[in-house]
Amino acid sequence: MKIAGDAATKKQLSAEALYNQQLNLNQLYDEAISFRKKFEAKHQENEYLKNNLEVAFQSIANMSKAIGMLLHDKEHCIKHLTKKQEMALKAIQNYGIKHVENAGFDEIAQNMRKYYGFTKGIQDVINELMPKPPQRGKGGYEL
After folding, report:
1. 12 domain-assigned
2. Which residues have CB under 8 Å from 136's CB, separation 6+?
3. Phi, psi of 106 (to 5 degrees)
């Protein structure tokens, strides 16, 4: 009978060991799910920040292009700049290009070097600043 008792005890111990292993596996699985959710949240946050960073550097590029237009465009060129003023405007452009490149947005930096002009966004702001013509009242004239 002692052999049967030993076999039962071994089975009991084996079952308890398997049960404990399963508990550990369940705990590890729950932790893995929790880490995955945290990772996905951080990934989404990272993508959001990356997109905002790109928008910010694109805005710097747009401002740089506008400065280029003020320096080089025949119609919009600021006449009679002193050398210091011209150098300051060029330094602002170069400063922008340097930081855009350092952030890894090489395509935007190349675009900054290659083109100048008012982008639609900057032109929209210019249009907002333009004086509006006076509006007449309905059916009458304003004095």
Report:
1. yes
2. 142
3. -65, -40
Q: Would you say residue 135 lies in a domain?
A: no
Number of domains making up the chain: 1
Crossing angle of helices 83-102/2-72, nearest 10°? 160
Average pLDDT over residues 21-25: 96
B/e letters for 117-131, b = 16+ CB within 10 Å, e = fewer, are ebbeebeeeeeeeee
Cα diameter, the chain: 120
Query: Cα separation of 23 and 29, whole Å?
Result: 10
pTM: 0.68
pLDDT confidence band for 4 (50 / 70 / 90): low
Structural domain that includes position 50: 2-123
Indicate the average pLDDT of the chain: 91
- Count of residues making up the chain: 143
Q: Where are the alpha helices (DSSP H) in 73-143?
A: 83-102, 106-114, 120-129
Is 140 a domain residue? no
Please report whether residue 134 resides in a domain.
no
In this structure, which amino acid lies at residue 137?
G
Q: DSSP code of 134?
A: P
